[in-house]
Amino acid sequence: MSQYSFLAVPLKSTHDVDLVKPLTTYIDSVYNTTDDNRAEVTEAVQELNKLRSKACCQPLDKHQSALDIVTRYYDQLVAIENKIIISATQTPVVFKWKDAFDKGSLFFSKASLSISDGSFERAAVLFNCGALMSHIAASQPLLTDEEMKTAAKLFQQSAGVFARLKDTVLGMVQQDPTPDLMPDSLAALSAIMLAQAQEAIYIKAYKDKMKPSALVKISAQVGDFYQDAQKAMNRDAVKGLWEKEWVHIVSGKTMGFQAISQMHQAEINAENREMGEQLSRLQEAVRLSEMAAKYLPPGCLSEQLNAISKLYTAAKKDNDFIYHERIADFRSLPALPRAALAKALPVTYPMSPRFKDMFSSVVPVQVHNAMQSYESRKAELVNIETGRLREHTQLMNGILASLNLPAALDDASSMDTLPESIKQKSGKVKQAGGINELQRLFSELPGLYKRNEEILDETNRMLTEEKESDDNLRRQFGTKWSRMSSEQLTGPLLQEIGKYRGILHTASNADKMVREKFEANRPAIEMLSKNEVELRGSIPGQTQHAVEGSSEAVSKLRALMNQVQEIKVQREKLEKDFKDVRSDIANDLLKALAESQILNEEQISKEKIQQIYGPLKDQVEASIKQQDHIMAEVQTWNNRFTSEKSGSGTGAERERVLKMLAAGHDAFLELKGNLEEGTKFYNDLTPILVRLQQKVSDFSFARQTEKEDLMRQMQQNIVSGGGSGGGSGGGAVSTPPPRPPPPAARTSVEPPIPPPRTQQSLQAVPGAPPSAPGMPQISPAPQVPVMHPGYYQQHVPYGQPQPFLYQPQYQPNFANPYPTFPGAFPNYQQPYGHFPPPPQQQNPFATGYSTPQPQQQHYEVILVTQMFLKDDESWKAQTFLGLIFDLFVMLGEMIYSSFVGFMLRRFH
C-alpha cells in the first residue's frame, strides 16, 4: 500500500470456459451464414474466447494496457448482447465467478455463483473494470501532475462503474448475487472511490500550494465523502464484508480530513488575526488527528497531521504571550464551506477507445427477427402467387384433357394409333424415370421421416431426463434446492419441439395425399412408362375420321394449343423469377433501428415487398387473364370440331384412354415435383433438428454442471454447520437417519485414572467391552495408538509399552458415521465461523480420552453424497469416496496421536 493508503478493490476470479462450441452452434442455428461469413464468424468466436482468457483468467498488471484488455472484452460483450443471446435455454454457457472479498478457508473455497447468462458475465467483467481502475489509480506515485490527474480520473471512473452496477445488477443477475455484487456493497465501493478521487484532487491542490480558502473546501468535502463511505460500509447487509484494514483506513481518513480542513480554516483565521477561532479549530483538529492516527497506517497523512500539532503549539504560544484572546466555543463556529470537485463519471460505450466489433457481420437479434418476418412475408407472397399459377395451369390441363386435346387433333390429321402428343408425353415420363422413379422416391420418404422423428424423440428424452433429475432433487432438498426449475427454462425448447412435431405431422399427411393421387393415376403412368410398341398396343385403334386435318376448326385449335404451350413456358419462367429474387432488407432495418430504436417491421417489409414483387404480381394477373381468354376460345372451337367428327364406340374408348394418358402425364410431373419437394424438405429439416438437439444437449450439460456445483455448495454448507441438507418443504433428506447406538465403552467428561506402573500393558481395561469369542490374541506392538471416536482408550503412562488396539476395518456402507473433516478430532483447533469450538478437557495430557462428537452433520454429508451418487448411479464412486473418508480419518488420528505423544515426552 502506498503512503496515501488508497484502497484498491480486489478483482473477481473465474475459470476458463469454452465459448467456441456453444456460440458457433447458436450462430449456425439462428443465422443463415454463407461459407465466407461462417469462416469470419468462427474466427471472431475464437478471438473472443482468447480475449476472455486474457481478460478474466490470466494475471493482470496494474497498468493501462491491462485495463484496455478488460474494457475491450466488456465492450465486446455489450456489442454481442443483442446479437448472440447467452442464456440457459439459448446458448447455455456456465459462467462461474467467485466473490472478490471472500478469502475462503482451509477446507472450503471462496463463495461463488454459477449462472448461464451473458448479463451475469457482463456484470462480473464490469466489476473487474472498476476494480482494476482502482488498482491502477492506487498504484500511482502521485509525484507529477499527470500521475495525480490519472489517479483522480480513474477513481472517478471506478466510482461511476460501481454506481452503474448498483443500479443495474439485480436486473443483470437473475439469482441472489454474491455479497460483492449486492447493491449495498456496490454503493459502498462507489462512495469509497469517490472519496479517494476527491482526495487525489486535494493532494494535487496541496502540492500546488493553493490558497487555504480553496484547500478548506476541497479537504472538507473529502472528509464528507469518506464519512458517507463509512456509513455505507456500516450497513447491516454488508458490515461483515470488509477487512479491518479497510474499515480503519476509511474511519481514519474521515477524521483525518476533518482535522485537515479545520487546520486550513485556522490558517485563514491566522491571516485575519482571529486567534480565538483559530485556537478553537486547531484544538478540534488536534483531537481529530490524534483519533485518526490510531486508525491510519504509519506515514499516512503524516505531513498534514504533524503540521496540525505544530500550528496549534505556535498559535497557543502566541495567544498566551501576545493576544490573550478567549478561545471560542467550537460548536458556535460556522460550518466549513465545501467544494465537490470529484464526481462518479458515467459509464460510456465503448469504454475502450479503439474498440472494433468482431461480430460486425452479424446483425442484432431484433433486426434478425425482423428479417425473418420479412422472409416469411416474402415466402408467403411467393407461395401464393406461384400457387395461383400452378392452380390455373392444372385447371387448364384438366380442361384440355377432358377435351382430349391436343391428341384429338393428331387423330384428325393421322391414322396412327399412337398420337404424336401422347408419344411426346410418354417420352418425357420415361426420360424422368417413369413409374420406377416415383416408387423410389416414395420408398425414401418413410426413412427420412423416421430419422427426423428419432432426432426429436432423443431431444425430448434429454429434456425429460433433466426435468426428472431436477424434480427428484427438488423433492429431496425442498427449498434448499434454490436453482431455477426446469419448467421455467425448458418452455421455449419444448415449444420448439412441439412446433417441429406439428410440421412433421403435416408433412406426413401431405405424403398420404401424394400417395393417394399416385394410386389414382398409377395405370396411366404405368402405360406411359412402357416402350413405344407396348404403349401403341394399349391404345384402341381409331376409325376413319370424318374431319379433315386442314379444316378451320383443326387449324384454330392447333394455334390455340401453341398459345397454351407458350403460357406454360412463361409461367415456368415467372416461377423462377419469383424464387430468384434477392433483396437485402438488413440495411433498411439497421437504418430504422439507428434512427428511432424501434422497428416497424410490418410497414418496412410491405413497402419492400411491393417494390420488388409488384411487377411480377402484375405479370401473374396478365397470364391468368390470357388463359381465361384462350380457354373460352378453345371451348368454342372444340364444340365446332366435335360436331364435325363422326363418333363410334371404338372412338369413344380410344378417347377415354387418350384422356387418361394425358391426365397421367400431368399427374406424373406433379407427383415427381411433390416427391422431390418432400425429400428436400426432410433433408433440410434434419440439420435444423440436429442443431436443436445440440442446443438441448448443451442446455443439459450446463444444468448438470450447475447441479454438481450446487451439490458441492450444499455439502460444504452442511459440513460447516450451515444447516441440514433437507429442505423445509419436507424432502427425503429433511429427516436424518437415526444416530448410532452409544459405544459400549464408558465415556465421561472426567479423565480416566492412570493405572499403576505395575499394570501389564495388555491387561484388560476396566469398563471396556470384552473381546469377542474366538478373537485371536494380539501381541503387543510398540506403535502409536490410532483412536476412533466412541472407543475407550486407557491412558498409558510415559515409559510403558503401548498396547495394540483393534482397528475397525473399512466397510463400504455409507450408513456408518465415519468421522470426517474437522470436528472429528476433539482437540482440533477450528477457525472461528466454520465449526463450533471444541469442548475443553480437564486434563490436556489424557491422551486416551476421546469425547464423542455429534454425528448429525456427518450423517447429512453422507446422505447428500448418497443422493448425489445415486442420481449418477455410480456405486464405485460411493466405495471410493468411503475409502477416502476412512483414510483421511486414520491419517488425521495418527498425526494427532504422534503429536500428543511427542508433547507428553517433552512434558515428562
Automatic annotation (TrEMBL):
Determine the domain of life of the protein's source. Eukaryota
Q: Where is the BRO1 domain?
A: 5-400
Residue ranges annotated as compositionally biased, kind Pro residues, are 735-744
For the region Disordered, give the residue spans: 717-778
Q: Where is the composition biased (Gly residues)?
A: 720-732
Could you list this entry's UniProt keywords, alphabetically sorted.
Coiled coil, Membrane, Transmembrane, Transmembrane helix
Membrane-spanning intervals of the chain: 880-904
Q: GO terms for biological process?
A: mitotic cytokinesis
Per the record, the coiled-coil ranges are 557-584
Q: Which GO terms describe its cellular component?
A: endosome
| InterPro entries reported for this sequence | ALIX_V_dom, BRO1_dom, BRO1_sf
Q: What is this protein called?
A: BRO1 domain-containing protein
